[in-house]
Amino acid sequence: MMSLPRALALAAGQLGDPAILRVLGKTALLTLAIFAVGGAGLYLVVERAIDSVTSADTSGLGALLAALGMILAGWFLFRVVALFVLQFFAEDVVRAVEARHYPQARHSLRDLPLAEEVGNALRSLLRTVLANAAALPIAGLLLVTGIGAAAVFWTVNAYLVGRELHDMVWLRHRADPAELAPIGGLTRFLVGGVVVALLAIPFLNLLAPIMGAACATHLVHRAREKDLDA
Fold this sequence. Notes:
Blueprint: H1 4-13, H2 18-51, H3 59-86, H4 90-101, H5 114-141, H6 148-170, H7 185-199, H8 204-229
Helix pairs in contact: 1-8, 2-3, 3-5, 3-8, 4-8, 5-6, 6-7, 6-8, 7-8
């Protein structure tokens, strides 16, 4: 079984791969475009709300409020949007890692139908929204501790991200729906925890989903190879 630090090192070492760079470019541009459209929509909503209560020129106030709203939205929702977008390009990351490190496994890779990809992405989005909504009251109670609320959200999202990244790879190689996950729950949690931490760092948050998907690819294949050898 490959160690997590080794898998992360291999993932980081392949960030310069042209195939990985293409995925990074597509996911980053699409993620930022979603937030740009959201920001424009928020600005229009805020402007209409302000205009409904005053006739004064408040375009500057509307822009300021919309900007503050998008900063908060980016802080809380960037992970959700970035991983949702990555769902549609995950196969490119898996193929790039396999082409370099696991060429013998490429024959078992199956192309997921678009309907299945959309379904997986929507289920992931729903799990994220529900889990974070459920954690919100607990985080609120721990807000006075300073780090308690952050720890709650990190724990919840580490579990969610670890599962999502694992499934991005595993579902593309699973031959039988009843086949058990090759990576244990603790390893998935640790992978998710690292990626969630990186998602909180500006600029690195654009790389985090790609690194997570590449890392998960290494872990899944090494675990499957170990099972086959056993």
